[in-house]
Amino acid sequence: MILKGIVASPGKSLGKALCVRALSETDTNGKSGVSREETALNIRRAIDETSKELEGLSQRLLEEGKNMKSEIVGVQNFMLKDRMFQDAVHREVEAGYSAEASVQRGIDTQCRKIQTTANSFLKERIEDIHDVGSRIVCHIRGIKYPDLSDLSEVSVLVADEIPPSLLANTDSKYVKGILLSKSSKTSHVAILATNMGIPMLVGCRGLGSITEGQTVYLDAVSGEVHTDLTQQGKVRAEAEIESYREKQNFLKKYIQKESVTADGTRVYVYANLMDARRVDSLTRIGMDGVGLFRTEFLYMNREELPSEEEQFSVFRNAVKQLKGFPLTIRTMDIGGDKKVRSISIPKEANPFLGFRAIRICLARPQLILDQLRAALRASAYGPVRVMFPMISSVDEVDKCLKLLEKAKESLRKQDIRFDEKTPVGIMVEIPAAALVADKLAKKVDFFSIGSNDLIQYTLAADRTNEKVADIYSGFHPAVLKLIGMTITAAEKAGKGCALCGEMGADPLAVPLLLGLGLRRFSVNPSSILMVRHLIAQCDISKAHALSEAALSAENTGQVKKMACGFVSEEYRKWL
Amino acid sequence: MYERNIMIKNTSGIHARPAAQLVRLAEQFKSEFIISYDTVECDPKSIFSLLSADLHTGLTVTIRGKGEDEKEAVDSLCNFIDHMEE
């Protein structure tokens, strides 16, 4: 059988299906529908089962020589049986809460207590405590706990949705693919998977037909999953994986090469990054710098905000590894579909139109001042650029610049070194910003077009809603017009303009973007070499004619057709 | 009741793993214990209690035991803390 999905992270792989049922959050206010005795009994049974599970896991990890992991699991077993924890849970049961809610409340209480200590060794254990809670809740619900930290064979994860934290704790050596029925290609999980080089499909229908342990062939290039593989099918899949690998090998000729179009125009290809640990692999293939360094991940999987010191050390580390190439640090873009525990955002009817990114920062300036101080301090070690997301008006830019000046002033007072001329830019991802780009260009040093959001806001199509996925498209003439306006405004003001959304790595979009005047692409590391190859196939003057025609097209379909007709036979191999 | 003072000397204090070992040890005794310093008190038979007490390096704590095996128990807990490494 062939299942279809949307490619969220490219690649091909063959592996055994591991069906993961991610946990939905526990309602901590849920009341029990049964007697207290029965609730208590339920919990006792779940704790006993969890304890057996942890003992087994600890033993197995020990036998595999993973002593450290085994010990941590052993500690978790102690937490489970802890009298203080059990007393706390008992009190919640007495107060009438459901089994799940009582356990979760008990866990939360213990975490809060440890949270108040200043000990960083202990804070690292908070995740382990939450993990204990999740395991118990799973036993209460009678479902299998999705444990990805302990895989022993090559697996393809199959789930509705998985939280980014689950993937972050995974041993990527064994996870060779991810299949999700929900989620989207611009979700955080997708970004994480792409950065980890794990092929992934989202919005995949019919995943329920895949059984645990079944061998599946995931083709995250065409967006297909092949199940019920015959011996022949497996052989064919292996051949396809091999040919994909060859294509990747072909691209190796672009390693350490500058990007130049067929007619000799220099184009810059930057990397989108969120993890300084990946700078290493980037410098190996060579790039022009980091065009987007995401900072949301500094806030994830933890209770407290990242300190200035901690952020500084992450930024400095990245700057040092980049050896003279610029690091574009984007201040945090939390809100929308990205939630963190340390910043509470009240439930909103429209999170993407709500309290998000710079809007949170302007309301809570200390958040961004910490980031700005950390970024500025890193600028003493190499080129840093600061970028503000979700800008909708000149006023917001003024406020941001004022905060930046405040951060600078405080550093000057403390005699802390930084680069006074640190370039400042904004993301152009709200249509309003594109429409007043000429005014914004006077205020900042550079733009970066965030095509993911620009598309969703222009077309009013939620990028995480698969039902409107066909509306969401960068090839809509309206989107192209806004992109064109932004590039032109930057050019007129003598400022640089990059594009850092998924669109920059879409082979069909590359000639259009070049035609619109884009000379700076910022793409996922896995796409850099391909984009370099595609740029090398394009002729600027011809691309310009294409984009002119596209701007006067009627609809998405026409634009795509024009672009398809434009590219060469060889180029089409990459579509 | 029997009590003794002991200083925590290892570099990272009583963090998760040593805490688990301490619980394992304390549970072998019939006595009940209180480890205290300043206004903080904790129960070495509970890992959560130990962890939230933040028993860090350089601290001198009092271990108080009460029960039929209190002397042997407190001495043995002190001995454990005295020999913690890492």
Describe what is shown at a glance.
The complex is a heterodimer of chains A (575) and B (86). Chain A is of the alpha/beta class and 575 residues long.
Name the features.
heterodimer, A: alpha/beta, Glucose Oxidase, domain 1, Enzyme I, Chain A, domain 2, TIM Barrel, 3 domains, eight-stranded mixed β-sheet, 23 helices, B: 86 residues, Histidine-containing Protein, Chain: A, 3 helices
Helical segment count of chain B: 3
**Counted beta strands of chain B:** 4
Which sheet architecture does the biggest sheet of chain B show?
A: 4 strands, antiparallel
In the CATH scheme, the class of chain B would be Alpha Beta
CA distance, first residue to last residue of chain B: 31 Å
- Measured by DSSP, the beta-strand proportion of chain B falls in 25-35%
Indicate the radius of gyration of chain A in whole angstroms.
Answer: 25 Å
The largest beta-sheet of chain A arranges its strands as: 1-8-7-3-4-5-6-2
Strand content of chain A: 5-15%
Q: How many whole angstroms does the radius of gyration of chain B measure? A: 11 Å
Number of domains of chain A: 3
- Give the second-level CATH assignment, the architecture of chain B: 2-Layer Sandwich
CATH superfamily of the largest domain in chain A: Phosphoenolpyruvate-binding domains
Whole-number mean pLDDT of chain B: 90
Low-confidence stretches of chain B: none
Query: Largest sheet of chain A, described in full?
Result: 8 strands, mixed
CATH architectural group of the largest domain in chain A: Alpha-Beta Barrel
**CATH topology group of chain B:** Histidine-containing Protein, Chain: A
Helix content range of the residues of chain B, please?
A: 25-40%
Q: List segments of chain A where confidence is low: pLDDT < 50 over at least 5 consecutive residues.
A: none
Q: What oligomeric state best describes the polypeptide chains here?
A: heterodimer
